[in-house]
Amino acid sequence: MKIKIKQFVAMHSIAIIALFAIIAFAFTALSLTGCDTSNGNDTTHTHQWGAWKSNAAQHWKECSCGEEYGRANHNGNPCPVCDYNDSSHTHSYNDTWSKDATQHWKECSCGDKTQIANHSGNPCVCGYESGHSHSYSDTWSKDATQHWKECSCGDKKDVANHSGNPCICGFTSGDEIVEPTTAGLYRETGSGYIKIDTVTPTNISAVFTYVNNNAAAGAYLLIIGEDIITTGGCYLNRTDAKLTITGTGSMRTISLNTTATGCIFAIGRDTSTGISLTIGSNITLKGHDNNEDSVVKVYTGAVFTMQDNAKITGNSNSNSLYGGGGVFISHEGTFIMKDNSVISNNKAVSGGGVLIYGSVYVGGGVSTSGGTFIMNDNASISGNEASNRGGGVYSLSGGIFTMNDNASISGNEANNWGGGVDIYGGTFNMNGGTISGNKCIEGIGGGVNLSGVSVGATFRISNGIVYGNAAGNNSNTSGDSGAALYVTFSSTHSINAQYGSGETWTNIPLPFTSSNIYGYRNTTINVINGILQ
Question: Residue 406 CB: number of other CB atoms within 10 A?
Answer without folding.
Answer: 15
